[in-house]
Amino acid sequence: MSKKTFRQAINEALHAEMQRDPRVVVIGEDVAGGAGGTGVDDAYGGVMGVTRGLVGAFGRERVIDTPITESAIMGMAAGAAVTGLRPVAELMFVDFIGVCFDQIYNQAAKFRYMFGGKAKTPLVIRAMFGAGFSAGAQHSQCLYSFFTHVPGLKVVIPSTPYDAKGLLIEAIRDDDPVIFLEHTKLYDIEGQVPDEAYTVPFGEASVLREGGDVTIVALARMVHVALEAADRLAASGIHATVIDPRTTSPIDEDTILESVTETGRLVVVDEANPRCSLASEIAAFAADKAFFALKAPIRRVTAPHTPVPFAPVLEAAYIPNAGQVEAAVRQLLDINADRKR
Amino acid sequence: MQMSRETLRTAYRQMRTIRAFEDAVNRAFSSGEIPGFVHLYSGQEACAVGVCMHLDDHDYIGSTHRGHGHCIAKGCDIDGMMMEIFGKAGGLCGGKGGSMHIADIERGMLGANAIVGGSPPLAVGAALTAKTLGTDRVAVAFTGDGGSNQGTMFEAMNMAVVLKLPVIFVVENNGYAEGTGVDYAIGSRDIASRAAGFGMPAEHIDGLDFFAVYAAMAEALARARGGSGPSFIESRCVRHHGHYCGDPQGYRSKEELQAARANGDPLLHFRARVGASALLEATELDTIDAEVEQQIAAAVVRAREAADPSPSALLTDVYLSY
Ligand SMILES: Cc1ncc(C[n+]2csc(CCOP(=O)(O)OP(=O)(O)O)c2C)c(N)n1
Ligand SMILES: [Mg+2]
């Protein structure tokens, strides 16, 4: 166990699984880098350096740089998965899903069911996502609700280095297609990560903080925003439970519902656009299944229904922040105070 | 091809403007004044200018993530571009787009594009408009060597041939897509002959040579305006900088990079050519250099001092009912 970054944690998971299982291959653009150039091999190791060192350890046969051709990358990975490899395909930015989605949601996601349970598609698709870098409208989105909507796909969104490693190993060992999403702003955060391989199961939320006044559910970078809000609230005697579902398909309804039953209040924090979002989904099952425990309406703190703007002032206004979460919680408590009067 | 002194001066001024603009952006980015990331066009100036010199505001271009040169060559306002890259309210897109999304619809500039392979189908659409409405406008789809491998590119080329549309595909082959070389990523190693397989005239030219680009574009344009359908130009050039500002470029040897800058400079080629044939005086060109330098320096100052967008701009320009 030692302190590692989110980036290192993912790299270690890939290393460990490639070591353990020769069928695991990594496929993507510049996952090594330097092919056909005049410089050194492994010049990129992924555009964020996440796959660095893999080509040195496992060679170009298993760390496969591709042309810019995502449809063929995803289709090739799906075809290889259904025939015996265990590919980890990298999409780079999740925004690029638009050019290759068919191979994922009509093909890979549906094989097992459509073929009457006779196919296995052990495929992992890694992609980074999220705003905060002024990367503009086509490099900053949170599209996890797209994937969560599709039966047959599993969707993993870690928020800590520990979870990133354990969930990625679980994803690689899983026999279904898994979308593994990495928030770009989390690559440099640090946390304790065991050196050896371990798994974190899908469909088990993590409860990062416990308090009796309100339940705050958040994903990825927003988990850290929620924790910051919880800190501020605690200073004025308001105690929040903060839950990170970690996977949105499957999603751990029970942990969320149990907490809401205790606190009677729910705030969901989501960096994605609000309509048909995870925030809406979580609010919906809570309203459905914990209705009588609710003491106040459910609040969603999300980005607005706009593309992600480039200018830093606009982007800062776009991304949900701890102040907004804190205000939402206080509003819920005020509603109860008003009703008692 | 006969060219007037005035045309030559304009060509040089545009290429110099692109170079000076990119040098200024590079400096401002390195000092932390520009948010996000930027991809510089230096080394490819002859492509944008040799192509766009033939076009006017009514014609269309679709661009790439490396789009500053295309914008300048198509006549976008320099101050508006610089402010956009700085994320300011006075930018061409109000600061909402940034370097990778500069667009100026009135100038026929349909946008830089952060999705590799995003533009070619859009340019084909602009060509469809021209053909359907019976105007004599044409569309140019700029793409990189890397982008030429996208399915969208292949589909757009076939569609343009099938519908005989006035579109010109220009692939700027600068040798690399991020950190991957063309010799690895282009299976046939020949982008133009791959395009020829779709059934349109396709050639490769020396993209460092303004005159070669200008001549190839003249022919392609005559075909497009004359109703003979699409053409393809592979323009071989070099990238003077990294993929993005700050790229350590480990995939490229020092020698190669030095040679790229020394021998692969379209501005130096242009100067040598017009000097040798006594078309323009070196002093005239020096004067242009100085004027451009001033213009760009002023644009940086204006962009630096310009106002940020108002936070309320976040919620405009999109359908919002809640
Ligand atoms: C669909 C998509 N895939 C990948 C990327 C990431 N990306 C941005 S630029 C680039 C390389 C493009 O190479 P090329 O087309 O040769 O253009 P150049 O950068 O050389 O101008 C890549 C892979 C992207 N922006 N969009
Ligand atoms: Mg290129």
UniProtKB/TrEMBL annotation, chain A:
Domain of life: Bacteria
Residues of the Transketolase-like pyrimidine-binding domain: 4-189
Entry's EC annotation: 1.1.1.-
Signal peptide positions (record): none
Record-linked InterPro entries: THDP-binding, Transketo_C/PFOR_II, Transketolase-like_Pyr-bd, Transketolase_C
Keyword terms, alphabetized: Oxidoreductase
One matching Pfam family: Transket_pyr
GO molecular function: oxidoreductase activity
Keyword Transmembrane applies: no
Keyword check for Protease: no
PANTHER family assigned: ACETOIN:2,6-DICHLOROPHENOLINDOPHENOL OXIDOREDUCTASE SUBUNIT BETA, PYRUVATE DEHYDROGENASE E1 COMPONENT BETA SUBUNIT
Protein name, per record: Acetoin:2,6-dichlorophenolindophenol oxidoreductase subunit beta
Classification of source organism: Bacteria, Pseudomonadati, Pseudomonadota, Alphaproteobacteria, Hyphomicrobiales
Gene designation per UniProt: acoB
Automatic annotation (TrEMBL), chain B:
Keyword Ion transport: no
CDD domains xref list: TPP_E1_PDC_ADC_BCADC
Matching Pfam families: E1_dh
This enzyme's EC code(s): 1.1.1.-
Molecular function via GO: oxidoreductase activity
Keyword Membrane (UniProt): no
Catalytic activity: N(6)-[(R)-lipoyl]-L-lysyl-[protein] + pyruvate + H(+) = N(6)-[(R)-S(8)-acetyldihydrolipoyl]-L-lysyl-[protein] + CO2
Top enzyme class: oxidoreductase
Cofactor(s) the protein needs: thiamine diphosphate
Record keywords: Oxidoreductase, Thiamine pyrophosphate
Dehydrogenase E1 component domain sequence ranges: 13-311
Domain of life according to the entry: Bacteria
Function: The pyruvate dehydrogenase complex catalyzes the overall conversion of pyruvate to acetyl-CoA and CO(2). It contains multiple copies of three enzymatic components: pyruvate dehydrogenase (E1), dihydrolipoamide acetyltransferase (E2) and lipoamide dehydrogenase (E3).
Protein name: Acetoin:2,6-dichlorophenolindophenol oxidoreductase subunit alpha
Organism, as annotated: Mesorhizobium escarrei
